[in-house]
User: Which sequence fits this backbone?
């Protein structure tokens, strides 16, 4: 039976209002959270590859003990021995946690809980699975994955949680910018402050990246090892200069241009340094640090469109078309309608 208190005009206005609500801009940090969830799901699926159920899984963990301080080396070896006693259960457990975290980040109500839970999990993976990004070895360099993808997961989750507690878009952008700059300053410090001879560090990183890669990527890695090893000082200076420049980039003018340039540099690093996260080897457990850096960059750069932004929504942190403003009006019959203002 039709509702006698609802006029055709009111029903039409209600339908229009529902359509407009669906077309409201999605906050940028919400889009970044969804993207982070998708990456967690991809990591969970990578963890279910056949190679992760073999002895190579604990061996890969134990290899993180190489050139580490004694305390970290013992930690990595102990965890490697623990996983070797039950490789399949550990693999399934890790994959299940990552799939649950990723799926929860795609759900609006579970999103804050998933972000909060992902922080200790990512830090545990960083410590036990990545050897703290091998920072203490002296061989770590960001172009090949340092200071560790898991650390970037934790940093991004913290930034997204802080954004949910603050309605200030400019403050959120500053938080992303500070985190971005800190990561790249750390990268430059690792590049310039290594106690390992520069040529050895560069050759070791690129040659190790070539392991298990298809011919094209493996050949590229070996070629980079030869070139950078032969010109170690120049290569190190160039990499450090690029890293310092990227650390300053979010605070420069022409934000769109610098963002596109930054994403271009990250694309090169993901291909030439991380080999697409080594996903083509069949033994990768994550997509690498570079996609996480790209998400942080999207939050750090100010690329707002003032003329198209909705007055009630932070223009710096929203994507999608801006909706028409509507207000309530009560008709003479007492029915509420939505009228365009």
Assistant:
């Amino acid at each position: 039976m039709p509702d006698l208190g609802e006029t055709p005009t009111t029903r039409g206005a209600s339908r229009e209002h529902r359509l407009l609500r669906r077309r409201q801009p999605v906050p940028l940090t919400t889009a970044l959270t969804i993207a982070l969830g998708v990456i967690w799901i991809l990591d969970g699926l990578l963890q279910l590859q056949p190679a992760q159920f073999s002895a190579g899984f604990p061996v890969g963990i134990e290899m993180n003990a190489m050139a580490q301080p004694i305390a970290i080396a013992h930690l990595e070896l102990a965890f490697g021995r623990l996983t070797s006693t039950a490789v399949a259960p550990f693999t399934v457990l890790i994959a299940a946690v990552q799939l649950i975290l990723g799926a929860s980040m795609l759900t609006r109500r579970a999103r804050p809980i998933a972000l909060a839970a992902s922080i200790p999990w990512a830090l545990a993976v960083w410590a036990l699975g990545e050897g703290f990004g091998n920072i203490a070895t002296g061989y770590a360099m960001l172009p090949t994955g340092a200071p560790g993808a898991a650390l970037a997961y934790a940093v991004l989750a913290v930034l997204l949680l802080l954004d949910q507690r603050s309605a200030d878009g400019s403050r959120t952008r500053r938080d992303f910018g500070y985190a971005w700059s800190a990561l790249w300053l750390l990268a430059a410090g690792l590049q310039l402050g290594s106690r390992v001879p520069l040529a050895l560090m560069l050759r070791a990183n690129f040659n190790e990246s070539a392991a298990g890669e298809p011919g094209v990527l493996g050949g590229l890695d070996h070629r980079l090892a030869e070139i950078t090893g032969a010109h170690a000082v120049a290569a190190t200076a160039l990499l450090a200069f690029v890293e310092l420049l990227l650390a300053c980039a979010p605070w420069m003018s022409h934000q769109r241009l610098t963002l596109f340039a930054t994403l271009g540099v990250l694309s090169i690093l993901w291909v030439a340094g991380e080999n697409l996260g080594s996903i083509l080897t069949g033994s990768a457990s994550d997509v690498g640090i570079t996609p996480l850096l790209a998400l942080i960059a999207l939050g750090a750069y100010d690329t707002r469109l003032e003329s198209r932004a909705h007055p009630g929504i932070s223009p710096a942190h929203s994507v999608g078309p801006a909706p028409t403003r509507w207000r309530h009006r009560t008709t003479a019959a007492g029915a509420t309608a939505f009228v365009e203002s």
Notes: The two ends are 33 Å apart (CA to CA).
